[in-house]
Amino acid sequence: MRPPLLRLSVLLLAALPAAVSAAAPKVAPIPKGVPPGVWVREGYRLTVAVEDLKIARFLALGPDGTLYVSVPREGRIVACRDRDGDGTYEERTDFVAGRDPATILQGVQWHDGWLWFAQLNAISRARDTNGDGTYEERTDFVAWRAPASTLHAVQWHDGSL
């Protein structure tokens, strides 16, 4: 006869696969063309909101519904607009362009009428004053040339950066 502790351990190990599979989230069917490894919980659906943006990194939603997407390898932030409200952003404009891709545009956040963005060597803000989707005003607040700099995101909390 096995000792009680060993018997209990064997029972728990035997029940483990059933407990793990019961705790795993139910996954909704994945649409054709979705990359491997992408999944959505049951009750949600996955759709394409913006097509043909290669290696997008960070997103921020502006107060007017414009979706700002950083594309670090291209040194730009794209302003995407859904004019007809169907969930697909048909109109795209380079909000910020021509930044050195080596500085890697990182985090973006909308705050107080400005789109703030971090790069490896700076924190900046920009805004579109005439509604054309491209910034007219930009301010660099922190800038340096240190090659090992590691700014990756911008976040406002209680009015402070």
Question: What does this protein structure show overall?
Answer:
The chain folds into 2 domains: 1-46, no CATH class; 59-143. The longest helix is centred in the N-terminal third of the chain and has 20 residues, at 4-23. By secondary structure, it is α+β, with helices and mostly antiparallel strands. It has 1 helix and 8 strands; from the N terminus they run αββββββββ. The termini are far apart. Residues 2-20 have low confidence and may be disordered. The strands form 2 sheets. A 4-stranded antiparallel sheet has the order 1-2-3-4, with no helix packed on it. 12% of the residues lie in helices and 27% in strands. A hairpin with a 2-residue loop joins strand 6 (114-119) and strand 7 (122-127).
Topology diagram in text:
Blueprint (H helix, E strand, L loop, with lengths): L3 H20 L35 E3 L5 E5 L4 E6 L9 E6 L11 E4 L2 E6 L2 E6 L9 E7 L18
Helix content: 10-25%
Give the overall pLDDT as a whole number. Answer: 76
Count the DSSP helices. Answer: 1
Number of distinct beta strands: 8
Distance between the termini: 66 Å
Number of domains: 2
Tell me, briefly, the overall form.
globular
**Order of SSEs:** HEEEEEEEE
Structure described in brief:
By secondary structure, the chain is an alpha+beta fold.
What attributes does this structure have?
single chain; 161 residues; alpha+beta; 2 domains; 4-stranded antiparallel sheet; 8 strands; 27% strand; globular; disordered N terminus
